[in-house]
């Protein structure tokens, strides 16, 4: 049984309010009207995705694209990426890393863990908007099979 096509939600995990506003502004400027759900720390984002018991969050199965900062107040973005990719409910969600960190080892670690795109701040917003648009289109046309 296939689920009805649902719009892709953009989940932004960014603790800097100024960066978050700028990212959202540029998403809108790129012509994307998808819902944006923002979190300022990893704990609340992971609770949203996985719930208190890590069995199910707010809206399991919701198609989403994750925009993830690596430098957060309560845990690293790498920790969040690991948890997202290790959990059956979220492992297929595309993740775009948006961070000031340009260390080659850190970049490679994120790709090894399953990040789809790694963009350093200050962002080239044209490249950023294109990456978001491409992943959003990908999610809109591809039906990911439900986990067994």
Please explain how this structure is put together.
The chain contains five helices and five strands, in the order βαβαβαβαβα. It is α/β, with parallel strands linked by helices and 148 residues long. It has a single domain, classed as Response regulator (Rossmann fold, 3-Layer(aba) Sandwich), CATH 3.40.50.2300. Strand 3, helix 3 and strand 4 form a beta-alpha-beta unit. The longest helix is centred in the last third of the chain and has 17 residues, at 125-141.
Q: Count of helical segments?
A: 5
- Cα end-to-end separation: 13 Å
Global morphology: globular
* CATH homologous superfamily grouping: Response regulator
Radius of gyration: 14 Å
- Second CATH tier, the architecture: 3-Layer(aba) Sandwich
Mean pLDDT equals 81
What characterizes the major β-sheet? 5 strands, parallel
The structural class is alpha/beta
**What is the beta-strand fraction?**
15-25%
| Helix content estimate | 25-40%
Which CATH class applies here?
Alpha Beta
Taking pLDDT < 50 over at least 5 consecutive residues as the criterion, the unreliable ranges are 142-148
């Amino acid at each position: 049984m296939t689920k009805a096509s649902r719009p892709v939600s953009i989940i932004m995990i960014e603790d800097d309010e100024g960066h978050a506003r700028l990212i959202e502004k540029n998403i809108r400027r790129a012509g994307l009207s998808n819902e944006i759900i923002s979190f300022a720390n990893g704990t609340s984002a992971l609770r949203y995705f996985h719930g208190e018991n890590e069995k199910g969050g707010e809206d399991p199965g919701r198609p989403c694209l994750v925009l993830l900062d690596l430098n957060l107040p309560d845990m690293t973005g790498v920790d969040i990426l690991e948890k997202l990719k290790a959990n059956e409910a979220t492992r297929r969600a595309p993740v775009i890393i948006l961070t000031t960190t340009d260390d080659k080892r850190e970049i490679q670690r994120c790709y090894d863990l399953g990040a789809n795109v790694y963009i350093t701040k200050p962002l080239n917003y044209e490249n950023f908007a294109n990456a978001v648009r491409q992943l959003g289109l990908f999610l809109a046309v591809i039906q990911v099979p439900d986990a067994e």
